[in-house]
Amino acid sequence: MLFGxxxxxxxxxxxxxxxxxxxxxxxxxxxxxxxxxxHKLLSISNxxxxxxxxxxxxxxxxxxxxxxxxxxxxxxxxxxxNIHQAEIIDxxxxxxxxxxxxxxxxxxxxxSDWLCLAFVESNFNISKVNxxxxxxxxxxxxxxxxxxxxxxxxxxxxxxxxLECQELLSxxxxxxxRCAKTIVSGTGGMKNWAAWRMHCSDRPxxxxxxxxxxx
Length: 215
Prior knowledge:
It contains 8 helices and 3 strands; from the N terminus they run H-H-H-H-H-H-E-E-E-H-H. It is mostly helical. A 3-stranded antiparallel beta sheet has the order 1-2-3. A hairpin with a 5-residue loop joins strand 1 and strand 2.
């Protein structure tokens, strides 16, 4: 939590919202096991340019003590609202669900591969939606793209998974899992996800299952 607080204080001279976003994501990361630092840093989404990724630190603030207290309180409220709205699934609960849906070993990919993918793409956030520069959107825990795999009726889509993109935000994850199976069964497999290629492929991943019991 201290790490997140440092990120926020570094933004005290600006609107609290950008700093809060970093704080919110770091709070989620703190609930995960003691994963390597390069994975933890991936949880920082769009941190302010004046805060180094590797060494967040508080910067000098010009706000009065009263205004600083107000800013901190407002930021805490927004942070708690964001946490409430996000649908975060527990890492081991996700592992158990994926195991039940026969994802362990599917097309040669382990549960650890899927957990790593879920973390680097969405921080285990089932409800995440991200807009891309080309106007397409990525949906759900695996950030499945609307241009190729689902349709959101906002732009042309190949809709290879034959589903509405909103279905990928369902907490039961069944549509997401079916579409993910379609994706990895095709050309490229998990390499269709750039984040998996960069942060999960050819790395030791067994620690993602630490403490998880599938029975």
